[in-house]
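Hi U.,

Before I forget, here's the chain from the pilot set. I'm dumping it here mostly so it's searchable later in email.
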Amino acid sequence: MVFSRTGRAAAALLAVALLALGGTAAAQPENPETSAAGNNPVYFVHGYNPGSDANCKTIWGNAVDYFEKRGWPGGQLKTVGYYKGDTGCDVSISDDNTTGTRIKHVAADFANYIYEHHTKKGESVDIVAHSMGGLVTRVALLGSAKGWSGFPNGPLKVGDVVTLGTPHRGVRNPDASDTTQWKSMDPDSEFMRVLHAPENRLSQSWAAGTDWTFAGANEDETVSGTSAIDKGYHADHKFRYLNGNSPKVTHSGIRDIAGGKHNLRYWHSSEGVPHDTGNGWAPVKTAYEAVNRNDEW
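Structure:
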């Protein structure tokens, strides 16, 4: 089923009717592949790296190749560096950030880059983020919409955000590192408290202009599936990779795996009911479809 924001109420009613008849209201992970619209630039934001020296080409190579092969113009696919030691990135938003830099400050750098290069020109972008990069992205949009100090004073023009293995509710092992960024990803940190404060949740009006897709995996050894889909809190679409996939959808695999059929549970907020399939999209395909379809699910 395909629906727009304006048609979600009707879609929900139709979903109920179909379910009552024993049908399936939506089966996106089993639909044929779509061709790239390629309307917006797509920014790929990497996650936490203990050496403050991520390699964007290694991290995002499979995803960028997949987008290009599906027809997305290569010039519109941009990997983002934010650590001082980052290499192979298309754009750099800072030359001095380390794991000792607060996530909020990295987010402000990213927000100001998007504002200067796109928003103030009336241009919209899409964002695909892995791990902590999803928190950087989420706070970039939140801080701008709220007018926090150091952020642009107004919402960013971002059509779609996809997070892959992002610790929206914290990492599995918060004691694995004592860096500022890792401690912020402790489920009991002040950062997490602020992120989930009622006024900052994605169910609030500040987030309504963006279509949010969260993907996580039960076999992710760093971020649980529950945390990665921010269970209990709103997102427009949620994809949870279940046990028994081959290869396993690990923390790095969720940004690398582009093919195969997968055990998957997916959910769209317009329907309010989950669907399980053994023929689900690969994680990179999920990211592609999310930005390509915009809110036309």
